[in-house]
Amino acid sequence: MLTTSIVLIILYIIYRWSVSWIEYYNQLDKRFGMSIWRYSYDYPVVGKRDISILDDKEFVLLRRKRNRVVTFMYFTFFLSFVVFMSFMNQILLRILN
Fold first, then answer.
1. d(Cα 4, Cα 41) in Å, to the nearest integer?
2. Is the N or the C terminus of the chain less surrounded, counting Cβ atoms within 10 Å?
3. Which domain holds residue 29?
4. How far from 21 is each of 8, 35, 67, 71, 81, CA to CA, in Å?
5. Residue 21 within a domain
């Protein structure tokens, strides 16, 4: 139970670190918006013209970096959920025994 709680704390620190990177990338260009959960699209969206690498190379490369960080944040979030369920299982086993 101690190791699970330490892993949860470490995952929370990693999660906060990734969120701070997303917020940093959001401040670099106003076209990203303020959302930390939403991907910037690299694919055609109906009714909107996407910016290709030929139009604005710096923005597209920055958007791809930001999207990688968002993916890492999602991975950390869901991994934390699985570890948290293990932690809750250990607590319940101690209570019931």
1. 36
2. C
3. 2-38+49-96
4. 20, 12, 11, 12, 21
5. yes
The greatest distance separating any two alpha carbons of the chain, rounded to the nearest whole angstrom, comes to 64
- Is 25 within 8 Å of 32 (Cβ atoms)? yes
Structural domain contains residue 44: no
The structure tokens listed for 97 are 């025994």
Q: What is the pLDDT along the chain (97 residues), one digit of tens a residue?
A: 899 999 999 999 999 999 999 999 999 988 888 888 888 765 555 666 666 767 778 888 898 899 999 999 999 999 999 999 999 999 999 999 8
Indicate whether 10 belongs to any domain: yes
pTM (2 d.p.): 0.81
Burial 6-31 (b: 16+ CB within 10 A, else e): ebeeebeebbeebbebbeebbeeeee
Amino acid at 48: K
